[in-house]
Amino acid sequence: xxxxxxxxxxxxxxxxxxxxxxxxxxxxxxxxxxxxxxxxxxxxxxxxxxxxxxxxxxxxxxxxxxxxxxxxxxxxxxxxxxxxxxxxxxxxxxxxxxxxxxxxxxxxxxxxxxxxxxxxxxxxxxxxxxxxxxxxxxxxxx
Length: 142
Prior knowledge:
Layout: H1 2-39, H2 50-67, H3 78-106, H4 112-134
């Protein structure tokens, strides 16, 4: 029974990592495709509907946030603590920029565009903050 419990726990952690990776890849792909589409109209949209990728990005982002990381890190480095706030500000600015870019791209779908762009920008900012938190120095004495 102990082996089965470890296997289920391993599959759960593996699933969380897969969902997290799907979000990261879909977000980067969506933003890259969006920029390419804005530069040359029809280059991407002729073959692929970007709204499908946006939905995948939003759903996987929500799942990433809901599943989250349970581990907590303790920062001991004062220099890291000070520089971390700069990264938080940059992450929020990146989220706002992404939100504006997404809104201007999908504004023709109506009032839903505003909601989608705000949610997308929020998710982008949260993932960027998650990257900052994942790079924390460890204080393990092992």
